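Hi team,

Filling in the usual template for the complex we talked about on Friday. All components are listed, including any nucleic acid strands or ligand strings, so the model treats them as one assembly.

SUBMITTER: L.P.
PURPOSE: interface mapping
COMPONENTS: two
RESIDUES: 437
SEQUENCES:
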Amino acid sequence: MSCDNIRTHFHAYLDGELDVLRSLEFEEHLKGCSSCSGAHQEYRSLRTAMATPSLYFRAPRGLERKLRSAVRKAAHDETSRPAWRWTWIWNRPAWLAPFAAAALVMVVSLHLLNQHWTEDRRAQEMVSAHVRSLMVYHLTDVASSDQHTVKPWFNGKLNFSPTVIDPSTEGFPLIGGRLDYVADSPVAAIVYQRRKHYINLFVSPANQTATTKVDLHSLHGYNLFHWLQGGMEYWAVSDVNKNDLQQFVELVREAPAGIAR
Amino acid sequence: MEEQDKLARFEQDIMPHMNAAYNLARWLSSNDSDAQDVVQESYLRAFKFFGGFRGGDSRAWLLRIVRNAFYDWLKHNRREETGQPFEEELEHAVDTSARPDALLLEKADHELLHKTIGELPLEFREILVLRELEGFSYKEISAIACVPLGTVMSRLARAREQLRTQLIRRLQKEGV
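RESULT (copied from the run log):
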């Protein structure tokens, strides 16, 4: 082996990727060539230096918990899409009528159950949207603590005008706004902050104008408040504690009508 | 249930490689919070594609996802701090083997090593982490980084050469 030839094999030899025959040739050459053996020695020192465990970054505490809950949520999302089809009932012969009647009773009761599910599923989607906003480096489209900047930003992007308030004096600074999609419908997401926690306030048109009381949900460690007001549906989602979030919700609910609509 | 089974298998196979995922993401992104974001995104992707994982080395499989997630993140964030340009060193990098610097190199402490590796170009950092810190074979690296075997060899050689040159330069400047 010539010196040039040896150079190309340094690293493969060092990494144990050279076959036996070439390894022997390599070692043979090193014995008789001080220049090559010097270089070889250097790379070995370098490797030894890099073998120190302190170069290895270990995952910080809390990351595992975060990963587990994110993955479990993803797993839950995958399973929570019911795929029932009821159309087959109509294609059966008449003697199946009693069964169909029984099935109908079931359908009705399932429907009632389903209303309950819909709300749960929607809560689920809101949590997903909240988590997504914090995860994919996309918390806001318009970053501003000025409600008169955030509110007009939605003009032309949505066919409704969301409530934007500025409760910074109460300890909930406005961070900005974002256009989001939940269950294939556009929603306005207004982002506020409470200490280190973010609050996503999702606003979308409701199909009724009644004002409802506030429902509290808890999902995967997030708190959600849900209510209807002035023809709009509101979801406030955050990992901040219940009391703080409730205080925030009250501020939003008390916002003057002029700003709310 | 099938989904429960998938989750259980995922947690058993993939969760243990969290440190490897974080280590790679941390070296590539150069800071903790971005690294955590990249790892979390990687785990979600990994879970999504886990059904298609046909056994084999799950750590290599995961790190390939981490690597892709990182480059997507980089594209999204357009932060081009990919280390120093390395062309300048290549000219005389080849014939420095005569210098007996082995003793000098042994004096490189952890801090200096850390800093020097951290300032290498991304592709060099990546290959050094996969080889020196994770101990993957050339073939595995080739699969993880989606490059031919020959590129793995030449890139590793250049990465080490540059690391060596930079370290020596710094050590000499410090007068060690």
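MY TAKE: The longest strand of chain A covers residues 185-194. Residues 82-90 of chain A have pLDDT under 50 and may be disordered.

Thanks, L.
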